[in-house]
Amino acid sequence: MAKNQFKFKLKITGFELEVEGSKEDVAAITSSVTNQIKGLTNPQLLGDNIDTEDTESTDVTPTLLPQAPRKRSTRKKSSSSGSGNMKIEPIDFKNDPKKYSAPSMNWTTLQKALWLMYVINNEKNISELSIAQITNTYNTYYKQSKTIRSTNVARDLGKVKLGNGAFVGENASVSPHTWYLTDAGNLQVQNIIKESKG
Q1: Secondary structure class of 150 (helix, strand, coil)
Q2: Which residue among 10, 13, 139, 192 is least crowded, i.e. fewest CB within 10 A of its CB?
């Protein structure tokens, strides 16, 4: 081979290129990719003993390709009450403290939930309530006697729905599930009311 000649072979196996961006980025991306591929074929890479006077060299500096902005997740969180994204309105009712007493700060979450179910059943003739209805209704009318959490209401009602002396039953045939007082539950609330009246 003569002094001014050389042989150059480039083989790229499994070369893949994937580029993401917007239409405004096309020129910058094309230029960047072209320069980087030119850099692979630059004869200067083959060694210093090759005469490259007649060869146009390109100085290639790797550049970062513009990245497409990340998309934010649009998935909405579902409510723990099983009611999806629908807001559960509190049940409108009036309590007669002479008849049913009123909740106290030292009542447990279970006592507050059972008492509310009892009063609403007697005053509004609504015998079944969801966890969200119990929680939202209680917290709307009785914030001053310490609010309750739906997770605690579900936990506590779940503990007293089993066995012969169960205070509540659960209706799993509707969504969200609803809860109702048993005869033992009604008696329990009547005892709570008597004790609170002193």
Answers
A1: helix
A2: 13
In the three-class reduction of DSSP (H, G, I as helix; E, B as strand; rest coil), residue 39 is classed as: helix
Spell 122-137 as b/e; 16+ CB within 10 A means b: beeeeebbbbbbbbbb
Q: Give the contacts of 35 (CB within 8 A, at least 6 positions apart).
A: 58, 60, 63
pLDDT at 177: 94
Interval 92-142: pLDDT, tens: 988 999 999 999 999 999 999 999 999 999 999 999 999 999 999 999 999
More confident residue, 36 or 60: 36
CATH 1.10.10.10 residue ranges of the chain are 97-197
Report the alpha-carbon distance of residue 82 to residue 71 in Å, rounded: 28
Nearest-angstrom CA–CA distance, 189 and 184: 9
Cβ neighbours for 166, distance < 8 A, ≥ 6 positions apart: 160, 182, 184, 185
Instruction: Give the end-to-end CA distance of the chain in Å, rounded to a whole number.
Output: 114
- Is the pTM higher than 0.70? The answer reads no
The answer to whether residue 1 scores a pLDDT higher than 70 is: no
